[in-house]
């Protein structure tokens, strides 16, 4: 616990000098930072006042192995002492990136055995978009460059990733969303299988492909479970239908596994729940459990071989920190822990406990509905009248208020309010126990009582 003077100083300096990501600037300038954290251990964070919080979002859906794992710091320190940095440009390499690539290849489905490295999810997605366009260009089809994403999808904040994102609020800041990115209605499995009688057919991926012509479409990008859009789980059969559609029309399938990867959904990767193998898989977050920035793009050997066969050119795409040795060393240690402690299994086993907790909330509070969980990714919704399906008036700020009530009771969860929804998302560290889930449920219940 810090003294009062230090806390006041930190608050002042934050307000004066720090522009927070995805935050209200007005609120920041009026009230300063909401909390200043100093420590993390297991599923808990501690702030400057010595208050403890259950981090039921694994911070940003990323701290999969939990906070305070000294082993990761030791792995980073050893790597820095041995080889702090070396570039991978121009076919130079180092031992740790080779080891990580071999390890990832043993984990990813199908022949997704070739890896390009980035510093996070947005860079991974932008890399995927450039790679697929390059692929088609090299194959003599440069007009095949459009990308279809889904409504409510979140793919990040770089230009390509923002364009692919299907949440309009993220487009507001950017005046030049690329017209080569199209957005389809999510999860219209029947349409993707060819049901033209559905009035939404023209908004489905298949409808859009037919309208635009498959000759113009490079790739389709999907999150196996939409995270930031409100934890929307692909219905069974959907990803399989998208895979089929891609095969039918000669379009590449990109899975955005930035949240779903590394055990979050009860399997190592989200697509493993449906046995679908995409052509490209974008990863970040859980690859290092947030201990150091790293992202990766997995592609099939077939895709790499095709690229190599048709292009003698240098691949003009690389970040200074592509394959950063320390990030790779931390990723290797993180994966070792995930496997040693069977955390994907724990995620699968704790999922039903989390769902039980959310159903308890539904039983107890008439404003709670639509609970869903896959692994340790879950959500519920708040409705003014759930029987009649009447949502809360957005001015009531039901979900954001609940998040504040939770925070004041030592629980961190997330509100999703896009498109008039009041969704509460949960994504706790994969080490969580049944007792800790019960604790989360009780705090949520108290907080819901306070906003009713
Ligand atoms: N893709 C998905 C599914 C995400 O949830 C996120 C971030 O939350 C991103 C991409 C962007 O990743 P980053 O913030 O590391 O750039």
UniProtKB/TrEMBL annotation:
One MF annotation (Gene Ontology) recorded for this entry: transaminase activity
SUPFAM superfamilies: PLP-dependent transferases
Source taxon at top rank: Bacteria
Keywords: Aminotransferase, Pyridoxal phosphate, Transferase
Family: Belongs to the class-III pyridoxal-phosphate-dependent aminotransferase family.
PANTHER family: AMINOTRANSFERASE, AMINOTRANSFERASE CLASS-III
Name of the protein this chain belongs to: Aspartate aminotransferase family protein
Source species of the chain: Peribacillus saganii
